Amino acid sequence: SWQNGYYDNENAISEVKQTAENIIYKFENSSQANLLPHSGVSSKNTAGWYTEGSSFFYTGHDRYLGIGNTSTNEAYCWSPRCHIGAGGWYSIHGLINAESNTKGADVFVIGSTDLNNWKYDFVHHCSNVGTNSGWQHFSATFEVPSNIRALAIRVDNNGRVNGDSGDYVVVFFGEFMLTRGKDNYPLYTDSV
Hints:
This protein has strands at 2-7, 12-18, 23-29, 50-52, 55-58, 65-69, 75-78, 82-83, 88-98, 105-112, 122-129, 136-144, 150-157, 170-180. It is an all-beta fold. Strand 2 and strand 3 form a beta hairpin.
């Protein structure tokens, strides 16, 4: 019997067939290939991601990356840029969780027409998560104009509730996947 699954998390599909005599492996490109480089963010690997404003990376979670905030103002982090070459329909999904001393979190897809000087030429709001709401799976599909050449993910920590004091000021996130196509989401199971 054939068993289907993901290989290397997003980039290929693997198939395994077992017969009485042998096992056959097959690997091929996935129609749901993740366009986002370094999307398997974890608390131990922030490669390609960077923070802005009063934010900092929180690396104390076993599995997911966190963005903390040192003020009541919004702070955010960025994914690496994804060069898309052309507009069209795209889909995103991921996990996010805002701790109790935050004002919540937002996820945006930002697009730019200029590959050298990043600009906000396209903005799509993908998710809003309230304070202390637990882990939330989000997904969104959107149409990107034909002049957009690159996309990036922006995760916002909307600020501390209790000023500059207190704990639980982190927005956690991970398992982001950006794919070509309308409503093009992989099968999802809650792994948190």
